[in-house]
Specification:
The chain is α+β, with helices and mostly antiparallel strands and 270 residues long. It contains four helices and 17 strands.
Length: 270
């Protein structure tokens, strides 16, 4: 199974324990050893790191734990290959430019019908690799292109409405757990995921946690793996499975969350 992780923080922050915990799930002894990647937003652009190899054995992952760029928004993925070979081109998260910003997408699931039908037609963005996830991302950007035609960030409710329709269409194809970010907000959609105890795909597909981080010594880490500075801040974490003993909440089947600057955002559904 692929593993997803995202963070939205009120202030620039480093991923520590969460990245390490996710990487441990991408070891050679697990099924998720076909690649890993993480995108750290720096304003409208991202610092992207990816390898088509096991994350738990990666010197680059260990380097990022101590030297990764502070960020308010990050998206990460551990890959279990089901479509497309083990290669950099097939390693998530995927990134593309739209409206003068870098957009990031990571998906967990299998979408066998993604190559058929007008709903998944591609615009100017085309897949570089062979995964159904990348095709879905390119189709999403085609849908969003009308919103991102100007120089301003589109209204959040319009973006959420487009993502909700996309998520509903994606669920009709197969498991549709995904993370999407546009540099302003983080969108997380939970669906179904293979539950080993049951032997079949069932909810939850994602879990969420919001942390209020009290002021502590600079450089200390909270239990959720967010490096805490000298001033109070909030952080939202999304992950395929809980990464700590804290009270993570499972996303309901088909739930779409929006986070911005370490807070969940309530947006009216159109």
């Amino acid at each position: 199974m692929c593993e997803l992780l995202a963070m939205s923080s009120s202030q620039p922050t480093r991923l520590t324990f969460s990245l390490r915990a996710l990487a441990a799930r991408g070891s050679l002894t697990s099924s998720t050893h076909d690649g890993w990647g993480v995108a750290f937003y720096q304003g409208p652009d991202v610092a992207l790191f990816r390898e088509p190899a096991a994350a738990a054995d990666s010197a680059l992952v260990r380097h990022l734990e101590s030297h990764g760029p502070p960020t308010q928004l990050a998206v990460s993925h551990i890959r279990h290959a089901t479509r497309g070979g083990v290669s950099l081109a097939n390693t998530q998260p995927f990134v593309r430019e739209l409206g003068g910003r870098t957009h990031v997408f990571a998906h967990n699931g299998d979408l066998p019908g993604i190559y058929r039908g007008d709903a998944w037609a591609l615009g100017r963005h085309r897949p570089v690799g062979q995964t159904d996830s990348e095709h879905a991302f390119c189709a999403l950007l085609s849908r969003l292109s009308a919103l991102w035609h100007g120089s301003n960030v589109p209204p959040l409710d319009a973006r959420r409405s487009a993502l909700a329709t996309f998520a509903a269409d994606l669920r009709a194809l197969g498991p549709a757990n995904f993370l999407y970010a546009d540099g302003d907000a983080l969108f997380a959609h939970g669906h179904r995921r293979l539950q080993p105890a049951l032997g079949r795909a069932e909810p939850p597909g994602l879990w969420c946690l919001r942390r209020e981080c009290a002021s502590v010594a600079a450089g200390a880490d909270d239990l959720a793996g967010v490096s805490v500075g000298t001033s109070a801040r909030s952080a939202v974490l999304l992950a395929s499975v809980p990464l700590s003993a804290e009270a993570w909440r499972p996303l309901a089947e088909g739930e779409l969350l929006v986070a911005r600057s370490g807070e969940f955002v309530a947006v009216a559904q159109q």
